[in-house]
UniProtKB/TrEMBL annotation:
<protein>
    <recommendedName>
        <fullName>Mitochondrial import inner membrane translocase subunit</fullName>
    </recommendedName>
</protein>
<comment type="function">
    <text>Mitochondrial intermembrane chaperone that participates in the import and insertion of some multi-pass transmembrane proteins into the mitochondrial inner membrane. Also required for the transfer of beta-barrel precursors from the TOM complex to the sorting and assembly machinery (SAM complex) of the outer membrane. Acts as a chaperone-like protein that protects the hydrophobic precursors from aggregation and guide them through the mitochondrial intermembrane space.</text>
</comment>
<keyword id="KW-0496">Mitochondrion</keyword>
<keyword id="KW-0813">Transport</keyword>
<keyword id="KW-1015">Disulfide bond</keyword>
<keyword id="KW-0862">Zinc</keyword>
<keyword id="KW-0472">Membrane</keyword>
<dbReference type="Pfam" id="PF02953">
    <property type="entry name" value="zf-Tim10_DDP"/>
</dbReference>
<keyword id="KW-0653">Protein transport</keyword>
<dbReference type="InterPro" id="IPR050673">
    <property type="entry name" value="Mito_inner_translocase_sub"/>
</dbReference>
<dbReference type="GO" id="GO:0046872">
    <property type="term" value="F:metal ion binding"/>
</dbReference>
<comment type="subunit">
    <text>Heterohexamer.</text>
</comment>
<keyword id="KW-0143">Chaperone</keyword>
<feature type="domain" description="Tim10-like">
    <location>
        <begin position="9"/>
        <end position="45"/>
    </location>
</feature>
<keyword id="KW-0479">Metal-binding</keyword>
<dbReference type="GO" id="GO:0005743">
    <property type="term" value="C:mitochondrial inner membrane"/>
</dbReference>
<comment type="similarity">
    <text>Belongs to the small Tim family.</text>
</comment>
Length: 55
């Protein structure tokens, strides 16, 4: 038997998902990017991309 989830519960779950996604994205970005004085991507930033990017 399938459980019906109310629209308000679906919205709440989606907002929680977006909040979690935003926190993970911000943590990744803040961990990887240290310098905003240059348009070049530094080698250590590229390494971090590979660390966070799923295979």
């Amino acid at each position: 038997m399938a459980v019906q989830v109310s629209e308000s519960d679906q919205i709440k779950q989606f907002k929680e998902f977006l909040g979690t996604y935003n926190k993970v994205t911000e943590n990744c970005f803040m961990d990887c990017v240290k310098d905003f004085t240059n348009r070049e991507v530094k080698p250590e930033e590229v390494k971090m991309k590979h660390r966070w990017q799923p295979v």
